[in-house]
Amino acid sequence: MKALTFENYGKSPEIAITHVPIPAIKPDELLVEVHAAGLNPIDNMITTGAFKTVVKLQLPAIMGSDLAGVVIQVGSAVTRFKAGDAVFASLFELGGGAIAQFAAVPEHAAALKPANLNFVQAASIPMVGLTSWQAFKDRAPLQAGQKVFIPAGAGGIGTFAIQLAKHLGATVATTTSTGNMALVRSLGADEVVNYKEQAFEQVLHDVDLVLGTTRGDDLERAVGILKPGGRIVSLVGPLDTAFARARRMNAFFTFVFGLMSRRITRLAKKKSASYSFLFVRADGAQLGDIARLLERGQIKPVIDSVFAFEQAREGLEYLGQGRAKGKVVVKIK
To answer: Which residues form the signal peptide (predicted)?
Structure first.
């Protein structure tokens, strides 16, 4: 089969469409013919080697984690799916890759595709949907009436997170540029800061939760807008000791991650607030809950552009420019 693979970590990852064997499935896996694969910023970050200590891959590796497609074979222990089912899933940290003609998908990671979405739309959901769900439902449960700040509201994670936060009854603040203000307001944003004209910390205040989606000094600046007892949940780092301990990493990495997050953790404590790093996990049950919201029209996919399979590398390059409004998807079948 054909797949988008990379050979090395670093400045020359050698990304290309290559021929690799169709994966052999385990008893608890599905063999899925992939129709579309969603792209995420971490796809580009993984090839740099930035996460090779925590995301274990055997090189050459197939790229991507989000997919939608049709089950063509099930393992002997699979009970929830059958051949012919349309599914979507995240393969993040599960060892496989999504930008391929076929993928082995663990049963626990898959959910039935929302009936009202096509494969391209469904493939745009898993990572941004699960990340938002795990931030707002698990890590820092968002209550109706609370205020959440979601920077970069027009991006892939922002467009989903705004909608989920509004569904949960929160007041949503975000940042974006002039051209995207109408978009984020249409998704439910209550307060929109044009980051090219104003600093968000001079406008926003009394925030219960900050979802860290942007790099640079934004996290430290966001501490100042939190109310006492507020929380920062970051998707972009720095990694922290709780993350290392949850993964049973050795004392060295626990120490290093503690150093990396020490400054932001101390700043948060001075405000009687807290900081934590969130790494998304594959979860088919949560994807099923998200699918129901999508089927009811309570959340809608936002797609910037669709690339053909042969242009998958160009799709990653486009995503890396940081200008996409919503998600970038590769159409494979």
So the answer is: none
